[in-house]
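hey can u check if this looks right to u? its 203 residues, i copy pasted from the old doc so theres a chance i mangled smth
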Amino acid sequence: MKNFFLLLILVFCALKITAQEECFIVKGRIFSEDSLTAIPYVNIVSELSHYGTVSNQDGWFLINSKTIDTLWVSCVGFERQRVPVAKDSIVDKELIIKLIRSNIMLDSVEIYPYPDYETFKQMIISMPSREPFFVPGLSKRNDEILIHKKPEIEPKVSGGSIISLIYNRFNKRERLKRKLERNRRKFNREMERIGADSLMIPK
């Protein structure tokens, strides 16, 4: 009985060693067929040994292959290719693979311009507005309240004293407010002149 188990172990070890010896290293380089330039980052997979690798920036690669095997070579922009390999013809040699570029035909597209600027502007103005979308559990609880909240008008300095008049006259913020108000009135006059009342800025 002991001899049987010993024989069984020896058979398994021999099979394992034989399986390891069946694999050999394939060294190769991948080029583009039309320009003969090296192709980097190409995927190479052995069909029988199930090993895989990627070519480097210069197109070189190393992969473990069976004695008689097939390499699947694929890359974006090139046609997928099957390359048969055999130990007797590959050992001490470099495998050269040339990939063919894949041609993808796209449907024709016709581009039509808008008739004029005013039509384009009116189409943009009349586009329906979208309500904000809030994801439960991700959006903050007060986001919707803050988005729809009306802006608060900062109260001016009360009183008609000399100090308040000086403040309103020379304060940087007050000067900016007056400038914005002048620009708003000028813009509204221009919109009223061309008949675009919907673009006027309210007070």
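The chain has a mean pLDDT of 77.
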